[in-house]
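Here's what a typical entry looks like (DNA polymerase III subunit delta):
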Amino acid sequence: MREIERIKESVASGKVATVYLWYGEDRFLIQEGLKVLKSFHFMTDPSGSGMEVVSAKELSPAVIVERANTMSFFANRLLIVEDVNYFQDGQTADLEPFLDYFANPNPRTCLLFIAESVHRGRKFYKALDKTGEIMEFCAPKRPQEWLTWVQSELKVRGKSMNTQVASQFIEWTGHHTGVLSQELDKLIVFVGERQKITSEDIKAITPQSIETSIFDLLDAVASRSSAKALQALRDVLRKEPALKVLALLVRQVRLLLGCDALRKRGGNVAEAPSVLGISPYEAQKIWQQSVRLSTGQLSKALSECLNTDLAMKTGGGDPGLLLEIMLIKFCEGP
């Protein structure tokens, strides 16, 4: 999030780096950063002729360096290198052209590398870090960070939500920056000239995410309310096919069992993201939910999920009905 502000500051001051390395799992935020960086180059080249996108998997480092050193008719040039995979073992010799270039980059070119992940111990990373600028693009992790991100997005759009409504919006929509941004754009159109967005606006125009629906469904199971669980299931089935719903339930039950096992061996919620391979925010929610479900309930739920999966794939009945029967069994307890 802060990375976007850094890019904006560089563009506003006209001090864009000659070499960048951007990486991280949030592709939406990287694309937002690209829009800002491109705006700087569009100022002197409205046609975009000085911008080029290449793949690290298709062009050698020597060819990329040659293109970076190519002089442009326009005041500046932007060369974007995607699919960067320069952090593997045994690549140092192949990357020598880059190491030489980093020592004396073309001042008329902005060379941008985009990677999913990096290795800080590699020579490529260390050499680039001395000359260029490295930015990690990752989604918010803690609840307060998500709220801050949504509020900043609203400010840019000239709208507002109170904290409670913003929290509801995040819970309702899910924790994906791209989806949240898209839904905010829809809300802006929906409310028109009105400045404040309400809870009723969100319910009227924003679809509830499947992940949130699954949480609601399992909350009903935890309270052993068959009626609420069945209603939640029917709501989900109106949006998604039965097999996908079952797959999400299986994933959720396995994560809940993982939290249950972690707690029993003396672990805590801070360990859950690395142990279970999920985000800190999701870990927090699943950890809280696992407290309400016994090991027996979760074990039975996983067994019933697998039985239902087999029945669906062998023509054992209507998929929706099979899921309903499964949920009723969940609510009965171990």
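The mean pLDDT is 87.

More examples are in the samples folder.
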